[in-house]
């Protein structure tokens, strides 16, 4: 074979090895360039809204009509039967403890006292006589001038006379008490709220003559519905206004919440106590009570007060409630919050978030911490905001 032919064959073989290697290297370099220039994934869209701190507005508070009443009221009645001959007080009068309120005809009671006194006098005379007889018999018995049974009889007569005297004294005390029961006396300071018998009426023992409302602590009564019962707590603050006292506001506190509903109205009786009632507040007056929320912003932490969020925004991290917050880098953070109250479609929370921060409103179980997101407003956000303001 000629040398020129051999060189041509060798050159062709070298080209067959070099060209594929170059093509492979070029393809690898091109693929590396493509991987480096791949664009990042777009952020995930999440429904979020700025959190707005709420305050204890009248819309959040509970409003109920109230009636003023004394904490303690009792019926005043005679302890004996009789005919009323005099009444000293009338409806609406203020009375003092020990003041005479009414009297019965006490002629019969006075005669009973006189009879009991006469019986006591007779019993006392008998005691003196039997005592003298006993002393004489004792002296004669020492000289053996009388029989032993005669001395025993004298001792028995004296003992019976002493017992009769004690009985007569007790009867006199009962008669004096019955005479005293013919007068009706106030046992507390207070106001007459009703009168149920007039002069000349014959009343029985225990029949109500007056109703006395004690002076001192002043209560207000309201009837709460089942829907609001969970929002009323003992010690809760309230503001009271009365149409009869325009421009005046009175502070009150919830003192008692009935443990069971009324059988007919199906409402719960709530009792409030006025902190400083004053003389202007009269028993029986009606007014309006505004009960501040039991968990008011004053009890929230310094992160921004309380926030009303949709119930769908609450995410539970184990047993702890939390919410997803979009931070300044548009990434999600999980913040623990305190749920103060659950309503039908919303929840009132405190802590963990600040005023104006974006909070995820829905889909809280499909996101994760650190996820890059893009917040978008929910559909009909303006209508929902207007509805929340109206509530």
Descriptive tags:
alpha+beta, conserved putative lor/sdh protein from methanococcus maripaludis s2 fold, Elongation Factor Tu (Ef-tu), domain 3, 5 domains, six-stranded mixed sheet, six-stranded antiparallel beta barrel, 4 helices, elongated, disordered C terminus
Tell me what you see in this structure.
This protein has 391 residues and is α+β, with helices and mostly antiparallel strands. The protein has five domains: 1-38; 47-54 and 298-390, conserved putative lor/sdh protein from methanococcus maripaludis s2 fold (Beta Barrel); 62-70 and 216-292, Efflux pump adaptor protein, beta barrel domain (Elongation Factor Tu (Ef-tu), domain 3, Beta Barrel); 73-105 and 182-213, RNA polymerase II/Efflux pump adaptor protein, barrel-sandwich hybrid domain (OB fold (Dihydrolipoamide Acetyltransferase, E2P)); 107-180, Helix Hairpins (Orthogonal Bundle), CATH 1.10.287.470. It is 29% helix and 33% strand. The protein has four helices and 24 strands. The chain has helices at 3-36, 107-142, 148-180, 381-390, and strands at residues 44-50, 53-54, 62-70, 73-77, 82-87, 94-95, 100-104, 183-185, 190-195, 202-203, 208-214, 218-224, 237-242, 245-257, 268-274, 286-291, 306-310, 315-317, 320-326, 332-336, 338-342, 346-350, 358-360, 373-376. Strands 1, 18, 19, 20, 23 and 24 form a six-stranded mixed β-sheet that branches. The protein is elongated, with a radius of gyration of 48 Å. The protein starts with a helix and ends with a helix.
């Amino acid at each position: 074979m000629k040398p020129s032919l051999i060189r041509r064959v060798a050159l062709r073989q070298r080209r067959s090895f070099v060209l594929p290697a170059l093509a492979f290297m070029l393809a690898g370099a091109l693929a590396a360039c493509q991987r480096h220039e791949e664009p990042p994934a777009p952020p995930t869209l999440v429904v979020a809204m700025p959190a707005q701190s709420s305050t204890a507005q009248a819309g959040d508070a509970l409003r109920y009509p109230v009636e003023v009443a004394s904490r303690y009221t009792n019926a005043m009645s005679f302890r004996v039967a009789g005919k009323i001959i005099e009444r000293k007080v009338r409806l609406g009068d203020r009375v003092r403890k020990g003041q005479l309120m009414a009297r019965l005809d006490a002629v019969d009671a006075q005669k009973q006292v006189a009879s009991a006194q006469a019986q006591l006098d007779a019993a006392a005379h008998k005691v003196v006589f039997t005592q003298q007889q006993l002393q004489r018999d004792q002296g004669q018995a020492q000289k053996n001038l009388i029989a032993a049974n005669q001395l025993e009889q004298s001792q028995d007569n004296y003992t019976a006379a002493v017992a009769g005297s004690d009985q007569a004294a007790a009867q006199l005390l009962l008669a004096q008490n019955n005479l005293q029961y013919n007068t009706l006396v106030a046992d507390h300071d207070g106001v007459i709220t009703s009168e149920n018998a007039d002069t000349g009426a014959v009343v029985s023992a225990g029949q109500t003559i007056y109703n006395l409302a004690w002076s001192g602590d002043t209560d207000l009564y309201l009837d709460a519905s089942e829907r609001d019962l969970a929002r009323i707590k003992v010690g809760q603050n309230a503001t009271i206004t009365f149409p009869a006292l325009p421009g005046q506001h009175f502070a009150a506190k919830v003192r008692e919440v009935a443990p069971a509903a009324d059988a007919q109205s199906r409402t719960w009786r709530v009792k409030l106590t006025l902190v400083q009632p004053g003389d202007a507040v009269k028993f029986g007056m009606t007014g309006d009570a505004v009960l501040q929320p039991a968990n008011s912003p004053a009890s929230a932490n310094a992160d921004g007060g309380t926030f009303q969020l949709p119930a769908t925004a609450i995410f539970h991290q184990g047993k702890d409630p939390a919410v997803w917050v979009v931070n300044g880098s548009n990434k999600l953070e999980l913040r623990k919050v305190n749920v103060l109250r659950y309503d039908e479609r919303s929840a009132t929370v405190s802590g963990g978030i600040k005023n104006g921060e974006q909070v995820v409103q829905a889909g809280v179980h499909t996101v994760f911490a650190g996820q890059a997101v893009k917040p978008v407003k929910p559909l009909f956000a303006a209508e929902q905001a207007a509805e929340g303001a109206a509530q």
